[in-house]
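LOG
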Amino acid sequence: QLQLVESGGGLVQPGGSLRLSCAASGRPLDTYAIGWFRQAPGKAREGVSCISSSGGSILYADSVKGRFTISRDNAKNTVYLQMASLKPEDTAVYYCAPVVPGTFIRTTQKRGQGTQVTVSS
């Protein structure tokens, strides 16, 4: 059974950068398309970015396009989300999950605990 653990969050000033990691265990990650999602208190869950199993197809939400970069290293069973030019509105719990390729449709309701990103001066 695929299990995903997110890490890399923290407190950063506006304009700063963070790199989140989504580490897989239980099954090889290279057959899964993976999406990054975020949820802030009182707000709906938002799909941030997703990447196909090979890394050849990538999708970004308009709210992060040009600032976030998703990538994966299947040899390390890890998907990354490099976040730059962070804004206070990026503050949320970020988590990763398997998705239908090319979409933000999760293939399972299971999710990890996520990692908190707080953008504040």
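LOG (cont.) second protein
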Amino acid sequence: VQLVESGGGPVQGGGSLKLSCVASGDTDGSYCMGWFRQVPGKEREGVAVVSPDGSARYADSEKGRFTISRDDARQTVSLQMNSLRVEDTAMYYCAAEPSPVPQPLALHEYRHWGRGTQVTV
């Protein structure tokens, strides 16, 4: 499974960005897909994940601001980020793992990762 992220960039505080991740390879809609982020010197952390049935889970700090969605026909998972804050600045990574994933927001659950896209607020 290969994952390629896009959509990052600079944005003013309070603004919005939409990240996208396109999957290729052995994907059949049965994967749990997620977004994680990392700042230098800190551990990568879960932001939002979406299961094959479309159910989503978010980290507490992102609830109400971020929305994750998936389009299995296009093998794409997106993250709409609104009301961005300085503390949202990070490298954002797409991740995928066959469902079920016992701890969806835990990075150790995922074996497939993209290279990341930088978001700077």
